[in-house]
């Protein structure tokens, strides 16, 4: 009885952190088994742990070739971890409860609220139902499209398997692939079906389920929430600016866009603009890109996807809030106004906190890896930001990481998936309500 009371007193962030950690540990054990590996031998536990963390945190960084080194059993374990990690283990638990017609308790609703990054519990179970339905429908549609293309390159059975597998991986912004030799989708750089389907999945997965719900119900409601407007606007701006910048910087690079025709240049620019939104797939060699392009992609990866999505990063709404704060300060305004709505001060403080914690994490990990990994600073910064943003893009240094580097990046992926603020809430002591306020003081800023 005492244990049950202690469990009930656990905060939702702490339960989320513990739940993800247990899933990763289970995945690591399964992936380390001989049945999971084509060599028939046990995989080193550190490599299995890194892979399980990358899959559960829907990142895509790999130290073992998913397509060549894992058996079908190992690949199914990985894709299961991706699905659970992308939708959230509480979403999957709620699905099982709904199927069994069990009642969702208040505690479970609070955890779901934290997992989906919602401000209230109102309609949370209804939102979870939508998440499950939308996800399965999108993944099924994409699986058909992928299969229709892959069937020209491989037997029908394998094409179906690849189609379903990659549909789940891309929608959950995981970036894992089965093509082997760490090639990702480079062989389909000019292919309209693969590019369109993959980009569609990445964008939809990165928008967030609240925005998807708003868009689907727009025909009935004829309106979008402020959250959806901010997400769609910032997503559109980042995708357009990203594609233009990459097109300009890489246009004459013979190792990337320079060797492609106009259609290939456009597809590749668009895809490499979409994928830093925490997807991890690529159609050109990221390591061969110019330094300006790589640094620009670091910025895109740091911003990441949107709240309530399968992606990571500080999120588009956080970035929009910061931009709004800068504009308001320059104009001498007291309030941040977006689409004629004033943002609450608490939202602004949260955006600043998330950004500073994220910057501290990325800077700290980059400094650590710079002392243990014999690589260029920019490539280490790229790898660190990719891990934090749960992106999965790499310039080619993941497979050469030291064991210490693998552990540090695994922790970074874990922190990036859950969010530094959630992690801080989970690990820190419970704050007591202040009964008084200190007198106001003034300091000089700037």
From TrEMBL:
Keyword set includes S-adenosyl-L-methionine: no
Source organism of this protein record: Paenibacillus curdlanolyticus YK9
Assigned keywords, A-Z: Cell membrane, Hydrolase, Ion transport, Membrane, Potassium, Potassium transport, Transmembrane, Transmembrane helix, Transport
NCBIfam families: 2a38
Protein name as it appears in the record: Potassium uptake protein, TrkH family
Lineage of source species: Bacteria, Bacillati, Bacillota, Bacilli, Bacillales
Topology in the lipid bilayer: Multi-pass membrane protein
An example Gene Ontology molecular-function term: hydrolase activity
Cell compartments where the protein resides: Cell membrane
Spans traversing the lipid bilayer: 15-33, 76-100, 131-152, 192-211, 231-249, 287-306, 351-369, 407-427
Entry GO CC: plasma membrane
EC number per UniProt: 3.6.3.14
